[in-house]
């Protein structure tokens, strides 16, 4: 009888540890999912603000010491450091177009405590007028390689490498 009672107590204790461990894993999994969702929203918000040409709000998505590097045809075309330099360059670039439209696609993110690395794919459509007054549509296939940091419970972009992988230019009728 004593052995059965001890076995029952042991099973109950082990069961509690398993439930406790499972609860801990569930909490970690939930936090990981929340962080990944917040990072996805960060990337999507960046694109929406670019479409609205709201660079001032866009800059709130970056750390103060952020770096943005752009690559075209496999070569680095620019390096921007800090919110002021990034904001000025974004403002100048976006002013060239009447319409800016980002379509975000697949994204992968690896989180390690309060830092994360991510890859996001984006189709960027830019429309402006040529010398003849016709609309010209430029479409880019862009891959972003990002480093994110979580500060005060908010995810921000610390480093972004923008790879403009391909480009199509077409005059609209």
From TrEMBL:
Question: Which PROSITE patterns does the record cross-reference, listed alphabetically?
Answer: PROKAR_LIPOPROTEIN (PS51257)
Q: State the source organism's domain of life.
A: Bacteria
Which SUPFAM superfamilies does the UniProt entry name for this protein? NTF2-like
**The protein, known as:** Nuclear transport factor 2 family protein
> Pfam families under this entry?
SnoaL_4
**InterPro entries assigned to the protein according to its UniProt record, in alphabetical order:** NTF2-like_dom_sf, SnoaL-like
Segments forming domain SnoaL-like: 33-161
């Amino acid at each position: 009888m004593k052995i059965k009672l001890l076995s029952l107590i042991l099973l109950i204790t082990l069961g509690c540890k398993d439930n406790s461990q499972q609860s801990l894993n569930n909490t970690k999994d939930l936090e990981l999912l929340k962080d990944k969702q917040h990072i996805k929203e960060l990337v999507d918000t960046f694109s929406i603000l670019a479409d609205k040409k709201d660079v001032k709000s866009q800059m709130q998505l970056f750390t103060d010491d952020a770096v943005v590097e752009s690559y075209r045809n496999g070569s680095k075309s620019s390096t921007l450091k800090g919110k002021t330099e990034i904001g000025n360059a974004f403002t100048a670039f976006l002013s060239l177009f009447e319409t800016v439209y980002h379509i975000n696609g697949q994204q992968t993110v690896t989180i390690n405590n309060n830092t994360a690395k991510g890859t996001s794919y984006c189709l960027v459509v830019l429309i402006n007028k040529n010398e003849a007054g016709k609309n010209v549509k430029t479409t880019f296939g862009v891959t972003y390689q990002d480093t994110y940091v979580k500060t005060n419970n908010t995810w921000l972009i610390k480093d972004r490498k923008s790879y403009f992988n391909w480009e199509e230019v077409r005059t609209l009728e």
